[in-house]
Design brief:
This protein has two domains: 54-191, Signal recognition particle alu RNA binding heterodimer, srp9/1, CATH 3.30.720.110; 209-280, 2,3-Dihydroxybiphenyl 1,2-Dioxygenase, domain 1 (Roll). Helix content is 26%, strand content 38%. The chain has eight helices and 16 strands. Strand 14 (226-227) and strand 15 (232-234) form a beta hairpin. The chain is globular. InterPro entries: Glyas_Bleomycin-R_OHBP_Dase (IPR029068), PhnB-like (IPR028973). It comes from Sphingobacterium phlebotomi. Pfam families: 3-dmu-9_3-mt.
Length: 281
Protein backbone atom coordinates (compact mmCIF):
# COMPACT_ATOMS: atom_id res chain seq x y z
CA UNK A 1 0.00 0.00 0.00
CA UNK A 2 1.78 3.12 -1.23
CA UNK A 3 0.48 6.36 0.26
CA UNK A 4 1.93 9.84 0.47
CA UNK A 5 0.06 10.35 3.77
CA UNK A 6 0.88 8.38 6.90
CA UNK A 7 0.95 8.82 10.69
CA UNK A 8 3.92 10.06 12.71
CA UNK A 9 4.03 9.07 16.39
CA UNK A 10 6.30 10.88 18.84
CA UNK A 11 8.31 8.67 21.21
CA UNK A 12 10.96 9.42 23.80
CA UNK A 13 13.92 7.38 22.52
CA UNK A 14 12.18 4.03 22.15
CA UNK A 15 10.63 4.34 18.68
CA UNK A 16 12.35 1.19 17.43
CA UNK A 17 11.21 -0.79 20.48
CA UNK A 18 7.64 0.41 19.88
CA UNK A 19 7.81 -0.44 16.17
CA UNK A 20 9.02 -3.95 16.92
CA UNK A 21 6.31 -4.35 19.58
CA UNK A 22 3.60 -3.45 17.04
CA UNK A 23 5.08 -5.79 14.44
CA UNK A 24 5.13 -8.63 16.99
CA UNK A 25 1.62 -7.75 18.18
CA UNK A 26 -0.16 -7.38 14.84
CA UNK A 27 2.10 -9.53 12.65
CA UNK A 28 2.68 -8.90 8.94
CA UNK A 29 5.09 -6.01 9.43
CA UNK A 30 8.69 -4.91 9.14
CA UNK A 31 11.02 -2.01 9.93
CA UNK A 32 11.94 -0.14 6.75
CA UNK A 33 14.17 2.70 8.03
CA UNK A 34 16.21 2.73 11.22
CA UNK A 35 18.07 5.90 12.19
CA UNK A 36 18.74 7.54 15.54
CA UNK A 37 15.95 10.09 15.00
CA UNK A 38 13.47 8.29 12.74
CA UNK A 39 12.22 4.73 12.45
CA UNK A 40 9.72 3.86 9.74
CA UNK A 41 7.81 0.60 9.79
CA UNK A 42 4.92 -1.08 8.02
CA UNK A 43 1.95 -3.00 9.36
CA UNK A 44 -0.06 -4.91 6.74
CA UNK A 45 1.59 -2.74 4.09
CA UNK A 46 0.71 0.57 5.80
CA UNK A 47 3.51 2.97 6.66
CA UNK A 48 4.08 4.49 10.10
CA UNK A 49 6.81 6.86 11.26
CA UNK A 50 8.21 6.67 14.79
CA UNK A 51 9.97 9.89 15.79
CA UNK A 52 12.48 9.73 18.64
CA UNK A 53 11.74 13.29 19.69
CA UNK A 54 12.43 13.14 23.43
CA UNK A 55 10.42 13.07 26.68
CA UNK A 56 8.73 16.47 26.35
CA UNK A 57 5.89 15.27 24.07
CA UNK A 58 3.72 12.18 24.37
CA UNK A 59 0.90 10.75 22.22
CA UNK A 60 -2.58 10.81 23.75
CA UNK A 61 -6.06 9.45 22.89
CA UNK A 62 -7.03 12.53 20.85
CA UNK A 63 -5.62 10.48 17.97
CA UNK A 64 -6.04 6.71 18.03
CA UNK A 65 -5.65 3.95 15.49
CA UNK A 66 -8.69 1.86 14.71
CA UNK A 67 -7.55 -1.64 13.80
CA UNK A 68 -10.21 -3.53 11.84
CA UNK A 69 -9.91 -7.26 12.55
CA UNK A 70 -11.90 -10.06 10.98
CA UNK A 71 -11.12 -12.80 13.50
CA UNK A 72 -12.40 -12.54 17.07
CA UNK A 73 -9.69 -14.77 18.53
CA UNK A 74 -6.98 -12.68 16.83
CA UNK A 75 -8.62 -9.52 18.13
CA UNK A 76 -8.63 -10.84 21.69
CA UNK A 77 -4.98 -11.91 21.46
CA UNK A 78 -3.95 -8.47 20.20
CA UNK A 79 -6.04 -6.84 22.93
CA UNK A 80 -4.21 -8.78 25.62
CA UNK A 81 -0.81 -7.70 24.27
CA UNK A 82 -1.75 -4.02 23.92
CA UNK A 83 -3.41 -3.81 27.32
CA UNK A 84 -0.47 -5.44 29.13
CA UNK A 85 1.19 -2.50 30.88
CA UNK A 86 -1.28 -0.10 29.28
CA UNK A 87 -4.62 1.47 30.19
CA UNK A 88 -8.08 0.32 29.13
CA UNK A 89 -10.17 3.26 27.89
CA UNK A 90 -13.23 1.20 26.87
CA UNK A 91 -13.49 -2.47 27.89
CA UNK A 92 -13.39 -5.19 25.25
CA UNK A 93 -17.06 -6.05 24.87
CA UNK A 94 -20.06 -6.14 22.55
CA UNK A 95 -21.38 -2.71 21.52
CA UNK A 96 -24.13 -1.50 19.23
CA UNK A 97 -21.58 -0.78 16.48
CA UNK A 98 -19.59 -4.03 16.75
CA UNK A 99 -19.88 -7.53 18.18
CA UNK A 100 -16.40 -7.07 19.67
CA UNK A 101 -14.73 -3.74 20.32
CA UNK A 102 -12.36 -2.16 22.80
CA UNK A 103 -10.20 0.95 23.19
CA UNK A 104 -6.81 0.76 24.87
CA UNK A 105 -3.76 2.96 25.42
CA UNK A 106 -0.64 0.78 25.24
CA UNK A 107 2.54 0.94 27.34
CA UNK A 108 4.08 3.45 24.91
CA UNK A 109 1.09 5.81 25.24
CA UNK A 110 -0.36 5.03 21.79
CA UNK A 111 -4.13 4.49 21.63
CA UNK A 112 -5.81 1.71 19.66
CA UNK A 113 -9.45 0.94 18.94
CA UNK A 114 -9.86 -2.74 18.10
CA UNK A 115 -12.95 -3.30 15.97
CA UNK A 116 -14.37 -6.57 14.73
CA UNK A 117 -15.51 -5.93 11.16
CA UNK A 118 -14.82 -6.31 7.44
CA UNK A 119 -11.64 -4.64 6.17
CA UNK A 120 -12.75 -4.45 2.55
CA UNK A 121 -16.36 -3.46 3.19
CA UNK A 122 -15.92 -1.09 6.14
CA UNK A 123 -12.62 0.68 5.43
CA UNK A 124 -11.68 0.11 1.77
CA UNK A 125 -9.13 -2.57 2.56
CA UNK A 126 -7.14 -0.36 4.97
CA UNK A 127 -6.61 -2.21 8.24
CA UNK A 128 -5.45 0.73 10.39
CA UNK A 129 -7.44 3.96 10.46
CA UNK A 130 -6.09 7.11 12.18
CA UNK A 131 -9.06 8.41 14.16
CA UNK A 132 -9.31 11.99 15.45
CA UNK A 133 -11.29 12.95 18.54
CA UNK A 134 -12.25 16.63 18.58
CA UNK A 135 -12.39 17.72 22.21
CA UNK A 136 -12.47 20.89 24.31
CA UNK A 137 -12.67 24.00 22.10
CA UNK A 138 -12.70 21.79 18.99
CA UNK A 139 -15.69 19.70 20.09
CA UNK A 140 -18.34 19.96 17.38
CA UNK A 141 -15.78 20.56 14.61
CA UNK A 142 -15.35 16.96 13.37
CA UNK A 143 -17.69 17.18 10.37
CA UNK A 144 -16.38 20.60 9.32
CA UNK A 145 -12.80 19.29 9.55
CA UNK A 146 -13.55 16.23 7.42
CA UNK A 147 -15.12 18.40 4.72
CA UNK A 148 -12.12 20.75 4.85
CA UNK A 149 -9.68 17.87 4.36
CA UNK A 150 -11.70 16.36 1.51
CA UNK A 151 -11.55 19.65 -0.42
CA UNK A 152 -7.80 19.95 0.19
CA UNK A 153 -6.59 16.53 -0.97
CA UNK A 154 -6.93 14.97 -4.42
CA UNK A 155 -8.73 11.64 -4.92
CA UNK A 156 -10.81 12.33 -1.83
CA UNK A 157 -14.39 11.90 -0.66
CA UNK A 158 -16.52 12.02 2.46
CA UNK A 159 -17.38 8.42 3.26
CA UNK A 160 -20.23 8.80 5.71
CA UNK A 161 -21.06 10.60 8.96
CA UNK A 162 -23.04 9.09 11.84
CA UNK A 163 -24.38 11.52 14.45
CA UNK A 164 -25.60 11.20 18.01
CA UNK A 165 -29.38 11.17 18.09
CA UNK A 166 -29.97 12.18 21.69
CA UNK A 167 -28.44 13.56 24.86
CA UNK A 168 -25.85 16.30 25.30
CA UNK A 169 -24.04 15.20 22.14
CA UNK A 170 -27.14 15.23 19.93
CA UNK A 171 -26.27 16.36 16.41
CA UNK A 172 -22.53 15.89 16.93
CA UNK A 173 -20.44 13.29 15.13
CA UNK A 174 -20.33 9.79 16.62
CA UNK A 175 -18.19 8.52 13.74
CA UNK A 176 -17.24 10.10 10.45
CA UNK A 177 -14.94 8.78 7.79
CA UNK A 178 -13.27 10.17 4.69
CA UNK A 179 -10.76 9.13 2.05
CA UNK A 180 -7.84 11.51 1.43
CA UNK A 181 -5.78 10.67 -1.65
CA UNK A 182 -6.92 7.04 -1.25
CA UNK A 183 -6.03 7.00 2.47
CA UNK A 184 -8.82 6.56 5.04
CA UNK A 185 -9.04 8.65 8.21
CA UNK A 186 -11.89 8.91 10.71
CA UNK A 187 -13.14 11.51 13.18
CA UNK A 188 -15.54 11.98 16.06
CA UNK A 189 -16.62 14.73 18.42
CA UNK A 190 -15.45 13.89 21.91
CA UNK A 191 -17.26 16.35 24.17
CA UNK A 192 -15.69 18.72 26.69
CA UNK A 193 -14.89 16.31 29.50
CA UNK A 194 -11.46 15.13 28.36
CA UNK A 195 -8.17 16.58 29.60
CA UNK A 196 -6.32 15.96 26.32
CA UNK A 197 -6.31 17.49 22.86
CA UNK A 198 -4.29 17.28 19.63
CA UNK A 199 -0.53 17.59 20.04
CA UNK A 200 2.78 16.85 18.36
CA UNK A 201 2.45 13.37 19.89
CA UNK A 202 0.43 12.37 16.83
CA UNK A 203 0.68 14.10 13.49
CA UNK A 204 0.07 13.20 9.85
CA UNK A 205 3.08 13.23 7.54
CA UNK A 206 2.53 14.36 3.94
CA UNK A 207 5.22 13.59 1.36
CA UNK A 208 5.22 16.23 -1.38
CA UNK A 209 6.81 15.91 -4.82
CA UNK A 210 7.00 19.63 -5.61
CA UNK A 211 7.19 23.05 -3.99
CA UNK A 212 3.74 23.75 -5.38
CA UNK A 213 2.37 20.85 -3.35
CA UNK A 214 4.13 22.04 -0.20
CA UNK A 215 2.74 25.55 -0.67
CA UNK A 216 -0.77 24.17 -1.30
CA UNK A 217 -0.96 22.19 1.95
CA UNK A 218 1.07 24.56 4.12
CA UNK A 219 -0.93 27.66 3.23
CA UNK A 220 -4.25 25.87 3.72
CA UNK A 221 -3.31 24.45 7.13
CA UNK A 222 -1.62 27.64 8.34
CA UNK A 223 -4.69 29.80 7.58
CA UNK A 224 -6.29 30.08 11.00
CA UNK A 225 -3.76 27.62 12.40
CA UNK A 226 -0.15 27.82 13.58
CA UNK A 227 3.14 27.56 11.72
CA UNK A 228 5.98 25.78 13.48
CA UNK A 229 9.51 24.62 12.72
CA UNK A 230 10.72 21.98 10.28
CA UNK A 231 7.51 21.61 8.26
CA UNK A 232 5.17 21.23 11.25
CA UNK A 233 1.89 23.12 11.00
CA UNK A 234 -1.33 23.03 13.03
CA UNK A 235 -4.60 23.51 11.17
CA UNK A 236 -7.54 25.59 12.37
CA UNK A 237 -9.11 22.50 13.94
CA UNK A 238 -6.06 21.86 16.14
CA UNK A 239 -4.65 18.85 14.24
CA UNK A 240 -0.92 18.75 13.48
CA UNK A 241 0.60 17.95 10.07
CA UNK A 242 4.10 17.66 8.68
CA UNK A 243 4.42 18.93 5.10
CA UNK A 244 7.70 17.50 3.86
CA UNK A 245 9.42 16.98 0.49
CA UNK A 246 9.63 13.34 -0.54
CA UNK A 247 13.39 13.65 -1.16
CA UNK A 248 14.08 14.53 2.49
CA UNK A 249 14.26 10.90 3.69
CA UNK A 250 16.86 10.08 1.04
CA UNK A 251 18.99 13.09 1.96
CA UNK A 252 18.70 12.54 5.70
CA UNK A 253 19.79 8.88 5.46
CA UNK A 254 22.88 9.73 3.39
CA UNK A 255 25.86 10.07 5.79
CA UNK A 256 27.50 12.77 3.66
CA UNK A 257 24.40 14.82 2.84
CA UNK A 258 22.52 14.57 6.14
CA UNK A 259 24.59 17.14 8.13
CA UNK A 260 24.39 19.74 5.35
CA UNK A 261 20.69 19.20 4.71
CA UNK A 262 19.91 19.19 8.44
CA UNK A 263 21.62 22.54 8.93
CA UNK A 264 19.34 24.10 6.32
CA UNK A 265 16.23 22.15 7.30
CA UNK A 266 16.27 23.10 11.00
CA UNK A 267 16.20 26.81 10.13
CA UNK A 268 12.93 26.52 8.19
CA UNK A 269 9.26 26.65 9.00
CA UNK A 270 7.68 26.00 5.60
CA UNK A 271 10.14 23.83 3.70
CA UNK A 272 11.84 25.26 0.62
CA UNK A 273 12.99 22.43 -1.66
CA UNK A 274 15.44 24.55 -3.66
CA UNK A 275 17.30 25.62 -0.53
CA UNK A 276 17.62 21.99 0.56
CA UNK A 277 18.83 20.97 -2.90
CA UNK A 278 21.52 23.64 -2.80
CA UNK A 279 22.66 22.29 0.56
CA UNK A 280 23.39 18.94 -1.11
CA UNK A 281 25.73 20.47 -3.69
Amino acid sequence: MKNNIYPCIWFDKDGKDAAQFYIDTFGDGNITTDTQMVVTFELSGQKFLALNGGPEIKPNPAVSFMAVLEDKDELESIWNKLSDGGKVLMPLDKYEWSEKYGWVQDKFGVSWQLYFGEVNDDVHGQKFIPTYMFTQEYNGKAEEALNFYVKLFKNSKLDGVMKHQEGDMKGLVMHGQCVLDDYVIAAMDGGNGHDFHFSWGNSMYIECETQEEIDHFWNAFAAGGEESQCGWVRDKFGAWWQVIPKQLVVWMTDPELAPKVSAAFYKMKKIDIETLKKATE
